[in-house]
Structures are given as structure tokens and as C-alpha cells.
Amino acid sequence: MADMASSDNQHPVQRERVRTGRTDPRALARLLDEWMHDNETEQRETFETERRALDENRPAGYKLLA
After folding, report:
1. CA 41, CA 47: separation in Å to the nearest integer?
2. CA-to-CA distance for 43 and 49, rounded, in angstroms?
3. Average pLDDT of each block of 10 consecutive residues along the chain (66 residues)?
4. For 25-39, how does the pLDDT look when each residue is reduced to its tens digit (9 = 90+)?
5. How far apart are CA 29 and CA 52, in angstroms?
6. Which of 64, 29, 25, 62 is nearest to 47 (CA)?
7. Which of 2, 13, 49, 54 has a 20 to 30 A CA-CA distance from 43?
8. DSSP alpha helix (H) spans, the chain
9. Contact 54, 64 (CB under 8 A)
10. In this structure, are residues 64 and 55 in contact, taking their beta carbons and an 8 Å threshold?
């Protein structure tokens, strides 16, 4: 009985992993390919915003992404 209670408390991702077995490598490759070819303009704008936010309060000689 105690074993059943502990198996019900598994993390949802762990339960899913047990249920589905192995992940299809082709599906992962498609997902990575999609991420790599996402909207390049949006990625550049996002990077510039993040770069400015990281460096804005740092002294001139200590910029992370200057």
C-alpha cells in the first residue's frame, strides 16, 4: 500500500516518461530545427533588450556584453 502512495506522488514529467517510453529523435530534431529558424528579427531585438538590461547598471569597465 505504501508503494502505491509513493508512485502517485511522482512528478508529472517522470510519470509521462514512464508511460511513453523513448522520445522520437526525429521529433526532437524537428523541434530544434524550428527553434533555430525562428524569427531572426525578433531574436535580435530580444538580445539587444537583454544586453542593455544586463549592462545598464555596471561600471564602464565591467560590461558583460559590451
Report:
1. 10
2. 10
3. 49 53 86 84 90 91 84
4. 999 999 888 888 878
5. 32
6. 64
7. 13
8. 2-8, 12-20, 25-36, 40-55
9. yes
10. yes
